[in-house]
Protein 1
Amino acid sequence: MIIGVPKEIKNHEYRVGLTPDQVKDLRTYGHQVLIQRKAGEAIGFLDDHYAMAGARLIDDAKEVFSESDMIVKVKEPQIHECQMLKKDQILFTYLHLAPDVPQTDALIASGATCIAYETVTSVAGGLPLLAPMSEVAGRMSIQAAAHYLEKSHGGRAILMAGVPGVPAANVVILGAGVVGKSALKMAVGMGAHVTILDKNLERLREIDELYGNRVHTIYSNSANIERSVLAADVVIGGVLIPGASAPKLVTQLLVSQMKPGAVLVDVAIDQGGCFETSLSTTHDNPIYLVDDVVHYCVANMPGAVARTSTIALTNATSPFVLEIANKGIAKSLKDNQHLLNGLNVYQGHITCEAVARAQGLDFVDPKNIFH
């Protein structure tokens, strides 16, 4: 199989779909790998490294798309990239389609087979290709919050950890999944007062046993969310429904009643965000104010630590890339239910029920295609 890796083009996105080590593995099995020049240069994966691993270097993305059987990326394709896809081609990347109608329409029109990292599952019931980036984003969310609490950025002029005689910041984390637990680890480590909310009592019990009275665990309902958010200096939104739009847990009215200078970090922004006031931002312009509340809603947070993120992500994705390359897409999807769960678009049809529901489109059960 010919696997193509184009250079990422989203704002301040320096991650790359495969490292030279993974290229070498694919070449060992006889596959060809096309890498767009300078795809990994910004994070220390140089063209020479890819060439030594056996990749063929390509000057432009159009040629990569044209010659490849499978495209491996990191972020969702931009519209002009979707237009370079072709029927019977495989796209393997993050998609986050539920809130993104234009991309969905473009992928349907392409006729390509599109597998989303964020809906591939595991034997343990988790999301193994989303988890590495959720870990990174969760940890970064506390770093970002600490930075934007500073007065010069519109924050409350509070030090996250406080100092002796002065209280630390009140951090509220919505969701105790991978993002929430990663944010929790950082916030506790920085000495903040932390409250975490979730509907899963078993998760809350585990956190309580691990952290004891250093963390307040609260069952998530509208009343508890309201009380917690109004007392917060920082709110981290880390709620995820696989493949679907994120639930709006914090209303615009509630934001208007928060402390001036409080910081909201919406890690769920790729799926539409869990605050009503959330709008996607970039690393160039990461924040904006609504009712004097700082909103940080960068859609590719892990891109800021792109080398760490690339290695963590490709460690998780490369076994699936190799499986698809070795078996072909039809056999891979038939043999691997977890990979099949990642199938979002197939030859013009939506095959992810959450995406279909979010956009009011017809759903085709992939089990009826690959059985």
Note: The mean pLDDT is 96.
Protein 2
Amino acid sequence: MTDHRHSPILVTGAGGALGRLVLAELIARGATELRAGSRRPEALEITGATPLRVDFDDAASLEAAFAGIERLLIISTDAIDAAGTRARQHRAAVEAARRAGVGHVVYTSMPAPTADHPIFFAADHLATEEAIKASGMGYTILRNNWYFENLALSVPGALAHGAQLTAAGAGRIAHGARADFAAAAAGALLGETQSATYDLSGPEAQSVEDQIAAINAALGSAIAVVPMADAALEATLRDAEVPGPLAALLVGADRAAREGRMDKVTDHVERLSGRKPQSLAQWLGENAQRLRG
């Protein structure tokens, strides 16, 4: 495997949770030419990486930041809407990388993005994957499954009410720890040379019943799983003043799980990172308290 520890590497979204973890992994593995891209580089405090302004809505910032970069990680932006904002931002970054002569781009996508996917921003990921493949750059597409950390969106409310509402049915999600997916991204930046797509997952696929059983065991709680239809769940979330896009995302994710779109378990995290991914039980052993809200 080629060693790119001394190649100029840029990580976008460096101020976010995933970006910070990727940079920490790269630094720990001896990367020496690191750049940390953020809309607010002045707020970054990362020893071992040079902060750069990277704003996907500002072409000049992309041109300046991508100059001389050999390896680029494009972390998906946080735009949550149905208007294609994320796809537009990503295409701008891909085009800027192509013009700058970036040799290899790593991109964080999602499981099995398709035009008919129930999660509304899946089309943005699909469009980005297609733009990367058409760019002529080498690429590693990482289709990250849901993070264990996403449970913090729903578990505090479930604890408060003693119930986890779900439209996922018996559908399973092969979710995993954010840190494991970050380690895989770092491994791709340092070692991948052939273009490929990887499905990143935890070591097992679990239903909501499985997840809640593990959470109850870790927290000593008694959350009950309450099945609901899609429309009823979305209406309940909106009645609880959950923002519309987030409510649609949560319902879409449940439907995707129910339809078997998120249950693929692979060894790709271990292949790229060199370590086995954490199980939910292991992660809860270290992080259960954060789910209390």
Note: The longest helix spans residues 85-100.
Protein 3
Amino acid sequence: PGAGGAPADGIGPEPVDRVVGGWATALAVGSTWPVLALWWDGDRSGYTLASGFRRPVGYIWLADGTPAAEDEAMRTSALRLGLDPVLDVQALEALTRADPEADADARLRGLLAVLTRAGVDLPPGLSPGEPADRLRSVAGIHPEAEQIEWAGWRDAVREELDAVESSGLGPWVLGPKARAVATAQVATGLPLALWGARRRSGGWIAAGLVLLAQGLLGFAYDRFRNEGGGGRR
């Protein structure tokens, strides 16, 4: 969730939907589960759903709650999330119709009410409409929150290897599947970072670099483990 933008190389704030959309896309590539990003600012609110290499989908509401997206996007989201095709879809489609009593924050709360039945929930304090300072303070004390900062390639490789060692991902860690995922991450990350650079989009540049780094680390890990004994079995 977000409530503000990120700097875009000194040309002003990056739109929050573009930033979280880039991160959702990066996280979803190579994963077996979809990534849902909720976002809001003073003018609009919405969500972005990324799932593997499929085109992300999402929905937008203006500040007063006016729908500003195609209805089909909501149905596609429900399908990708595995929601009930009747009850849940009916509840979601209600969010795409005009309602003078519901502003953008209320629309997001309605979305969350449906997703909660599917097991999706936000930590306490991370609620639609909260300002950025409030979100940061609440996220900072959450036990599963992690500060993202760059400590150099050596530390990044070490942390990645440690994470993989304890992940229990089985065939995704070594062998053809791991190499396929790494190849896909590199193939997606490089053009995404270049596209972001052309648009001076900090969010998309970061997402592309994350994918690129993960792919290169995946190749390095697979080779390292094979040379270290994993490939001699």
Note: The chain has two domains: 6-140, 153-232.
